[in-house]
Amino acid sequence: MLIDKQKVANSFSRAAMTYDSVAELQRDVGHALMAHLPKTLGTASVQRVMDLGCGTGFFSPKLKQVYPEAELLNVDLAFGMLRYAREERAIPEANWVCADAEHLPFANNCMNLVFSSLAIQWCTDFSALMKEIERVLAPGGQFVFATLGPSTLCELRRAWGEADSYTHVNQFLSSDEHLVVVPENLKVKVFDEELRVLRYPQLKGLTDELKRLGAHNMNAGQQVGLTGRERVRRFKAAYEAQRLADGSIPATYQVYYAVFEKTLVEQYS
After folding, report:
1. In which band, very low, low, confident or very high, does the pLDDT at 190 lie, cut at 50, 70 and 90?
2. What is the C-alpha to C-alpha distance for residues 90 and 265, in angstroms, rounded to an integer?
3. Are 130 and 102 in contact (CB under 8 A)?
4. What is the mean pLDDT of the chain?
5. What secondary structure does DSSP assign to 151-171, as a single string?
6. In this structure, are residues 126 and 64 in contact, taking their beta carbons and an 8 Å threshold?
7. What is the dihedral of CA 183, 188, 192, 198, to 10 degrees?
8. Rounded CA gap, 165 and 176, in Å?
9. Taking 50 as the threshold, does the pLDDT of residue 225 lie above it?
10. 3-29 burial, b for 16+ CB within 10 Å, e for fewer?
11. Does the pLDDT at position 165 exceed 80?
12. Disulfide engineering: 12 pairs with which of 48, 103, 195, 214, CB 3.0-4.6 Å?
C-alpha cells in the first residue's frame, strides 16, 4: 500500500507538542546513528549538512555541535513540526525548510552530509528518494540514516490480524528492498540491523505513545470505521496473549542503520 503523505504531514504536525515527551526510542536510535557520522569526507571538510525529516529538531543542535562551521538545513514534510522546532531549538544561522524528501528544493551536488533518523520510512517511493539523495550529495558526500524494517510492531500487526482482515499497521521495506534500488553512484558503506523490544505494563501505554508520536496508520486508502467494539475486543485479547514472561506487553522495532557515500561526479540535466 502507498503512504498517504498528506496524512503523514498532518499527523506529525498535530503531534509536535507531545512528540518529545514519548520519543525515547527515537532519541536512542538517533544517538546510535550519530556514531556513524564522519568527521571529514576524504580531504574535504563538511560545509553543508541536511537534517532530513528533522521533526522537532532534537538532533539539529547536536549536528551543529559536530559540524560548527557547516551550514545546517533542517527539512521536514510536516510544517507543524518545523514551526515547533524553529521556536524550541536555538540554532544560530540554521535554515528551516518544509519539503518532500522525494522532491528536494536544492541544487545538484550541494550537500556534504544528509542525516536522517527514523523519517524516510514515511516516503512513498524509496527509489525516487535515493535518486534525490544522489543528486544533492556532493562527490564524497554521505547519506547517514536510520529507518524501520517490516518486523516493526509485528505484535501489533499480529493482534489486528486476529481481529479483522484490514491493514491497521504501517508496512515498511525489507533490507533487500532498500538495497536493490541504491543508485550505482552511491556506495553502501554500512547497512546494519538491530531489533529493539520496548515493554509496557499495559497495552494502553503503547497505543497512547503511538498516538502522541503521531505514528498512526499512514497507508493510502486506509479503511475507516473498522474499530467497532467486537473488533477492538478481539484485538486486545490477541495482544494480551503475547505478554512476555515478565508480564509486560512487547513492541518490537526493527531498525536499519546505513551509510551511503557518493563516489562519482555526475551531470544532471
Report:
1. very high
2. 35
3. no
4. 89
5. TTTHHHHHHHHTT-SS--S--
6. no
7. -40
8. 26
9. no
10. bbbebbbbbbbbbbebbbebbebbeeb
11. no
12. 214
pLDDT surpasses 90 at 100: yes
Cell, residue 193: 540491523
What percentage of the chain exceeds 70 in pLDDT? 91
Average pLDDT over residues 188-214: 94
Q: Are 95 and 72 in contact (CB under 8 A)?
A: yes
Q: How far apart are CA 78 and CA 99, in angstroms?
A: 8
- Helix, strand or coil for residue 260? strand
Would the pLDDT of 269 be above 50? no
**CA-to-CA separations, 11 to 47, 82, 223, in angstroms, rounded:** 33, 13, 17
Which strand ranges, in their side-by-side order, compose the sheet holding 137-148? Answer: 95-98, 71-76, 48-52, 111-117, 137-148, 249-262, 186-200
Rounded CA gap, 163 and 161, in Å? Answer: 5
Any idea which residue has 498532518 for its cell?
Answer: 10
Q: Report residue 166's pLDDT band, with 50, 70 and 90 as the boundaries.
A: confident
d(CA 27, CA 38): 19
Q: What is the DSSP annotation of 35-103?
A: TT--S-BTTB---EEEEET-TT-TTHHHHHHHSTTSEEEEEES-HHHHHHHHHH---TT-EEEE--TTS
Cα torsion 103, 172, 157, 219 to 10°: value is 20
Query: Sorting pLDDT into bands at 50, 70 and 90, what band is 76?
Result: very high
